[in-house]
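Help needed: design a sequence for this.
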């Protein structure tokens, strides 16, 4: 885990609590007017990608498959 996680004690949170915290942090960006918002083109691209995933939810990789691919590219 990262140094910041340890220094704030976040490493002691359960996985569910860390996920909820990540969601709250993400949502906090939307509440900050200085944070740049998505362009119409970016939003359309995200909507398209979400629709593709919804249409074929089994089409992606499992975490294990992704990690294997990444490690093979890094030569680990």
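Sure. Designed sequence:
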């Amino acid at each position: 885990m990262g140094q910041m996680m340890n220094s704030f004690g976040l490493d002691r949170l359960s996985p569910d609590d860390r996920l909820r915290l990540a969601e709250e942090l993400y949502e906090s960006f939307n509440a900050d007017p200085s944070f740049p918002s998505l362009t119409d083109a970016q939003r359309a691209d995200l909507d398209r990608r979400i629709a593709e995933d919804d249409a074929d939810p089994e089409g992606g990789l499992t975490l294990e498959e992704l990690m294997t691919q990444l490690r093979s590219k890094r030569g680990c």
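The two ends are 19 Å apart (CA to CA).
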